[in-house]
Amino acid sequence: MHKHSMKTVSGGVCAAQGFLASGIFAGIKKKKKDVALIYSTVPALAAGVFTQSRTVAACVTLDRQKLRRSGTARAILVNSGNANACTGERGMMNAKQSAATTAAALGIKESQVLVSSTGVIGQFLPMEKLTAGVYDAVAALSADGGADAALGICTTDTFPKEYAVQIDIGGVPVRIGGIAKGSGMIAPNMATMLAFITTDVRISHPMLTKAFARANDMSFNRITVDGDTSTNDMAVILANGQAENRTITAEGKDFTLFYAALEHVLIVLSKMIVKDGEGATKFIEVTVKGAKTKHEAETACRTVCTSSLVKTAIHGEDANWGRILAAVGRSGIRFRPERTEIFFDDLRILGADYDIRFSEERAKKVLEQKELSVTVDLHGGKHSATFWTCDLSAEYVRINGSYRT
Q1: Would you call 313 helix, strand, or coil by DSSP?
Q2: Are 85 and 117 spatial neighbours (Cβ–Cβ below 8 Å)?
Q3: Is 184 exposed, middle or buried (0-12, 13-18, 19+ CB in 10 A)?
Q4: pLDDT on residue 183
Q5: Where residue 339 sits, what CATH number does that domain have?
Q6: In the chain, what is the greatest distance between 2 CA atoms, to the nearest angstrom?
Q7: 261 with 294, same domain?
Q8: What is the mean pLDDT of residues 330-334?
Q9: Cα first-last separation, the chain
C-alpha cells in the first residue's frame, strides 16, 4: 500500500463509524482509571487471538467460548488492577456476572459482551466496585471516549497506547483504530498483552479472522519485553460494517488494502508496547536474514530478542556480539557460525570467519542511541524475520520485585 493512501486519524477505537467508548475510575486501582468500555451501536463481527499459556484467566476462557459460538460481539468490558486469573469457579462466575451487568446496562444480549481483565493474579474481583463501574462506564460512553478507554486498560504502562488510520477501499473511506496495553510480561507468543481493535469495514467473518490472525503474527507475536507470556493476553477486533465499501469476501485488491492497514495499526501499537517496556531505555529492532526457512529465521530472531544477556549488554552499551551469536547457536536452527555477520545499524561488528575488526568508538555511538537495529546475516538461505524488543535494566527488577505492593 502506498503510504499516501493511508492517513493517520484521531479517535483510537472511536475513529471508526458507529463506535463509542469510555474509561472511568471504579476504585479497583488506588487512583487511576480502571474500567474501560468499547461499544458498537450496531451488531458487529468479532475475532480474537488469545494467550497460549495453559494458565488462563476466566475472561480468556469465556471469550473463547463466545467467539466460537457466534463470531459476533457488540461490547468489550475491560478492567485493570485485577487479572481475575487463577480464581476458580468464583472467578468464572464473576466474569459472567460482569458481562451480564454490562449487557443489561446496554440493553443487549449477554452473548454480545466480551470481558477482559489485567492486573495481579490470584485475587477475586471486587464485584461491588466493578458493577458500579459498569454503569458509570455505560453512562460515560462517547464518540470521544477512545483516549479514556486507552487509559482505563493500563497497569504498569507509563503512557496510553492508541492509534487509528483511514484508507480508501473502492472509493469509500474505511477506518481502523485500536488501543493496547502492555509494559511487562510481554513475549512473542500470542497474544502478548491486551489490544482492542475496531473497524467499520464490511467484510465476511472468515476474511476478518484470516486478516486478524495474520496481522497478529506480524506484530504482537513479534515483540518481547521480558519473555513472559501472561495468563490474560488477548487481542480482539470488532468490525461493524458501517463503511459503505463492497463487502470483502475473498483475497483480492480490497482485502490487500484492508490487511495492509490493519497490520500497520497493529505494528504501531506493538512498537508502543516495546518502547514502554518496564524499565526500558532502548528500542531495538532485530532482523535475522539469510536463514534456510521462514520458521528458522523467526526462531533465531525470537531467541536473540528474549536473551537476557543480549538485552543487558545493549543496556550497558557493550558491543558484545558473542552473546548474539551464542543466542542464535542455542535457538536450534541450522546455520554455520563462521559464515555469520552481525551489524549494529550499518556498522559490521562481526564478519565472516570471525572477523572482528570494528571501531569500538563507533559501536559505542550506535549503542548510545535510544533506537537501534541489530541485523544477523546467516548467509545460508533467503528467508528473514524482524522482531522488536527493548533493553533490560535494573529498573525492570525494581518494578517487578514490588508489583503486588
Answers
A1: helix
A2: yes
A3: buried
A4: 66
A5: 3.10.20.340
A6: 69
A7: no
A8: 96
A9: 47
* 65: in domain: yes
- Per-residue pLDDT of 239-294, as tens digits, reads 999 999 999 999 999 999 999 999 999 999 999 998 887 778 999 999 999 999 99
pLDDT for the residue 186:
47
The answer to whether residues 127 and 201 belong to one domain is yes
Closest C-alpha to 16, from 185, 223, 176? 176
Residue span of the structural domain in which 123 resides: 3-273
Rounded to whole angstroms, the Cα distance separating 335 from 289 reads: 11
Across residues 9-34, what is the average pLDDT?
96
* pLDDT reported for residue 188: 43
Annotated catalytic residue, options 156, 192, 199, 389:
192
198 part of the active site? no
Q: Which of 243, 273, 303 is the last residue of a domain?
A: 273
Which of the 8 DSSP states describes residue 72?
B
DSSP-assigned letter for residue 274:
H
Give the span between the Cα atoms of 194 and 153, in whole angstroms: 8
Whole-angstrom distance, CA of residue 141 vs CA of residue 249: 32
Within a domain: 151: yes
pLDDT digits (tens, 9 = 90+) for 225-238: 666 667 888 999 99
pLDDT digits (tens, 9 = 90+) for 338-391: 999 999 999 999 999 999 999 999 999 999 999 999 999 999 999 999 999 999
Do 232 and 364 fall into the same domain?
no
Q: Locate 217 and state its grid cell.
A: 503474527
The number of beta carbons lying within 10 Å of the beta carbon of residue 294 is 13
278 lies in some domain: no
Element (H, E) at 196: strand 194-199
Euclidean distance between CA atoms 206 and 193, whole angstroms? 24
Using a 10 angstrom Cβ sphere, with 0-12 exposed, 13-18 middle and 19 or more buried, the burial of residue 298 is: buried
